[in-house]
Amino acid sequence: xxxxxxxxxxxxxxxxxxxxxxxxxxxxxxxxxxxxxxxxxxxxxxxxxxxxxxxxxxxxxxxxxxxxxxxxxxxxxxxxxxxxxxxxxxxx
Length: 92
Description:
The protein is an alpha+beta fold and 92 residues long. Helices cover 38% and strands 24% of the residues. It has a three-stranded antiparallel beta sheet with strand order 1-2-3, covered by helices on one side. A three-stranded antiparallel beta sheet has the order 4-6-5. A hairpin with a 3-residue loop joins strand 5 and strand 6.
């Protein structure tokens, strides 16, 4: 469960200790689970159109987010890399 208004996330009723950007990334991916997002799409969605940083910022945040998510058992979904495209929240 991701609550974007409260900036909280839970797996199996356990609090996830995520940063604001990690919660926004997870929410964006999970709320559009049939869509693959490019790095540029995620930069626009999460950081905003006025962000002038490197698209590899997304990779760094995704690496940290995945490391935190991997600590919990989540057999029904995963955050996947779609090679040549970007990232996707996949329901298994």
